[in-house]
Amino acid sequence: MEENTQIQDMYDLLGISPEVRELGEQTEHRLKERFDGFDRTAEYNQLKVIHAMQENRVSEGCFQYASGYGYNDQGRDTLEEVYASVFHTEAALVRPQITCGTHALYLALSANLRPGDELLSPVGKPYDTLEEVIGIRPSRGSLAEYGVSYRQVELLEDGYFDYPAIEQALHEKTKMVTIQRSKGYQTRPSYSVEKIGELIAFIKERRPDVICMVDNCYGEFVERIEPGDVGADLVVGSLIKNPGGGLAPIGGYIAGKRELIENCACRLTSPGLGREVGASLGVMQSFYQGLFLAPDVVCGALKGAVFAANIYERLGYQVIPDGRESRHDIIQAVTLGSPEGVIAFCKGIQAAAPVDSYVTPEPWAMPGYDSDVIMAAGAFVQGSSIELSADGPIKPPYAVYFQGGLTWHHAKLGILESLQSLIDAGVVGIEKVRALIRSS
Ligand SMILES: *Cc1c(COP(=O)(O)O)cnc(C)c1O
């Protein structure tokens, strides 16, 4: 009891009312089994990462600063072996010179497609930033400008794959297929690795030569298997999301077949130089340590996502995924139904941050979006979305997308602050919270 009072005192200090905290406690209590499941997956993935580090003889020397050309950069080369082991692929390219997830995806595509080839997305529209990469929206330097054509197969009503249409869309020009694991800002489901495996098997049965790439952003370590375990030829992601564990200050990775990875290296640096150059400039310790922490960080983010889903579901809001669904990425959408709701939610997330908590986020016209967008992020690494963050376009249905949290307790505080902020703004009535507490 004494201990509980101490914790409540801290929540008081942070502006969380006893009612909001009580609703949180009840919700957490109900989620015990779910949380145990996430812990078991994290345990498995933690062992997988440690085994990969041991197997590849990671040593203190791997953290040394390398500059200039970066020939024989031991830390870099060993880390790439570690990634290949973790993702069960032949090879990997993991570099600070890969600036973000979009860059990693562009690299994987542009390195392995040639003029006259066609790229197919069998899972509908790809992530927004890929529209310019591919040239769906005309853009300087797009794949379209280099004579690479593109085709996409829309998803069925239920958000899954239209196999007959995919079969038809595969033709002799098809060289590569891109499959996005996470739903991004769409309302379709995020796909389990198993489902992705079924899709890859279907494609490979018809066209064994087609390269299957998976955009793995936000999916790493959510499950015990990764796309490389189910036949993906290339697995691509960002280090300022899951696998960077919150410590990587920049970077992207591509894991996959050796030949295809060599193509990526030659495209990233230069033909003839490939993976031999590209100094790691002192970021290696954060890459290794981030990967080491990533399974646990992802586990905390998943707890936060499910906690938010359950709290907001109880309050009567639509949440995707819902409170009980299995998880395939760390993103949680909550439809608040009004601009005031979206703004108050984001203000709460910001107020809970360790960095820039005193800043008030406001909606603004961001490049590439067709409405104002509000973003909450008080991150150690700018724009890092494995850290607790939320954003929402100010347009119907007025949904916020919430993700991350380097620790479960921070994610919990962020969600409680978001609710407190909704109450303080008069969007949610305190009576409603009291009634929910009484009813359970
Ligand atoms: C974040 C993300 C990207 C792009 O990554 P950036 O680092 O933002 O460039 C691509 N695909 C998906 C599914 C993502 O979530």
List keywords for this structure.
440 residues; alpha/beta; Aspartate Aminotransferase, domain 2; 2 domains; seven-stranded mixed β-sheet; 12 strands; globular; binds pyridoxal-5'-phosphate
Task: Give the topology.
Layout: H1 2-13, H2 18-30, H3 32-55, H4 74-86, E1 91-95, H5 101-112, E2 118-121, H6 128-134, E3 149-152, H7 163-169, E4 174-180, H8 193-206, E5 211-215, E6 234-238, E7 252-256, H9 258-268, H10 284-314, E8 318-320, E9 332-335, H11 339-351, E10 373-377, E11 389-393, E12 399-403, H12 408-424, H13 430-439
Parallel strand pairs: 2-3, 2-4, 4-5, 5-6
Antiparallel strand pairs: 1-7, 6-7, 8-9, 9-12, 10-11, 11-12
Bound molecules: pyridoxal-5'-phosphate.
The site of pyridoxal-5'-phosphate (PLP) has 12 residues, from helix 5.
